[in-house]
Amino acid sequence: MNSYFSYNFKAVPYFILFSIYVRMFFLITHIFLNNTNNKFLSLKNDRKQYVVKNIVKSVNLCALSLYSLPYIIYPTFMYQKWDNNLIHVAGLFYSSNDFVALTYVNNLATTTKNHHQITTFLSFLALTIDFNTSSLGKMLFVYTLASSNTFLVNYHLGTRLLYNKEETLTVKKNARNVYAMSLILNWGWHIYWCLTNLNLLGIQHLLYFGVMYPVVKDDIILLTWLCN
Fold this sequence. Notes:
Distance between the termini: 45 Å
Shape: globular
Radius of gyration: 18 Å
Structural class: mainly alpha
Largest sheet: none
Number of helices: 9
Helix content: over 70%
Low-confidence stretches: none
Order of helices and strands: HHHHHHHHH
Number of domains: 1
Strand content: under 5%
Mean pLDDT: 94
C-alpha cells in the first residue's frame, strides 16, 4: 500500500470470513445461554439477540485488543511502523461484529444502527488509506483503538439482562470508568491534533468529523446511561 488511493482488495475476503465466524459465534452463544441461564430463556427474541451480540462483541474486542498490543500498537508507537495490511484486516474484524449485528438483531436503536453502519463503511474506506502518510488514517486508527479497549461496556450491556441489578453494579461502574477514560483520551487526542496541525486540516478532515458525528452522539448517549 504505497499509494493513498490504491485499494487493498486482498483484505476484503477476510471480512467475509470474519462475518461467518461472528454469526457462528452468535449461534453458539445463543445455544449456550439457552441451556444455562433461566433469565435468558424468559427474554423476548430481540432481547436475546441483543444479549448475544454484545457478549460476542465484548469477547472479540478483547481478543482484538490483546492481539493488537504486540503486533500493531507496539511497533506503531515505538518505531512508527504502520503495517497497512494488518491494520486493514484488524479494522475489518472490528466492523464485522457491527455488520453482522445489523443483520441479526431486530429492533436495534436508531443511534446504534447508525453507529454500526458508519463503522462498517469506515472499515472499507480505510482500505484506501496508507497509515504511514495519512493524518486522517491516524485519526481513524486512534478512534478504533479506543473503541476496541472498551469491550467491558459491551460485556455489561449483554450480561445486565442475565443477572439481578445488584449483581451487575460493579461491572457497570468499571465499564463507566473505562468508557469515560477512553473517550477523554480519544477526543482529547483529536482536539490536540487539530489545534497543533491547523495548517494540515482539509476538506477530508471536515468530512471525517461529519461522518463521525452519529458515532460521537451514540458514545455520549451510552456514557450518560452508564453514569445513571
